Amino acid sequence: MAPQFDKASFRTGRLRPIRFEGCWRNGVVIPRGIHSLLKRIPELLEDDESGLDDRLRSTLYRLWQHLTDLDRQVRELEAEIVAWHQASDASRQLARVPGIGPIIATDVIATIGDGRQFESRRNLAAWLGLVPRQNSTGGRATLQGISKRGDR
């Protein structure tokens, strides 16, 4: 699962230099989002009156090629994840829960496996960070806060 998310976040991180450093400083406004950017950059590269100098145009072209390659890799990885999800009974069963799709279901199954390493459902929920952490000493139980970071 990690390569897909790493490539997706890396792809998203490439948007800022293109939108702000390259275009916005030269008076070209591109709406937010990868689809707007992928659609608008070829138009800018073909438009001789866009106000972009040759060096910026060359840099934008290289960044656009890199971004389209990353986008293709993310789509390929997502297709692999969905194919694995469709072949896994546990993942398909988990995806029946409202709000959980193939990617999240596959990630959960890949992370926890069959869940036999947990003594109870509460232990699994605590490991995921969904219940308060318990700190017990001397027969006195103290419940601490719920983590917002999950299994990190």
Q: Could you walk me through the main structural features you see in this protein, from its secondary elements to its overall organization?
A:
There is one protein chain. 61% of the residues lie in helices and 5% in strands. It has 152 residues and is mainly alpha-helical. The chain has 2 domains: 101 residues; 35 residues, no CATH class. It has a two-stranded antiparallel sheet. Helix 1 runs antiparallel to helix 4, helix 3 runs antiparallel to helix 4 and helix 4 crosses helix 6.
Task: Indicate the structural class.
Answer: mainly alpha
| Termini separation | 15 Å
As a whole number of angstroms, the C-alpha radius of gyration is 23 Å
In this structure, how is the largest beta sheet organized?
A: 2 strands, antiparallel
- The overall strand count is 2
Strand percent estimate:
5-15%
Strand order of the largest sheet: 1-2
Helix content: 55-70%
Identify the overall geometry.
elongated
The average pLDDT is 76
Q: Residue ranges: pLDDT <50 for 5 or more in a row?
A: none
Instruction: Spell the H/E element sequence.
Output: HHHHHHHEE
Number of helices: 7
Domains (count): 2
Give the oligomer, counting copies of the same chain as homo and different chains as hetero.
Answer: single chain
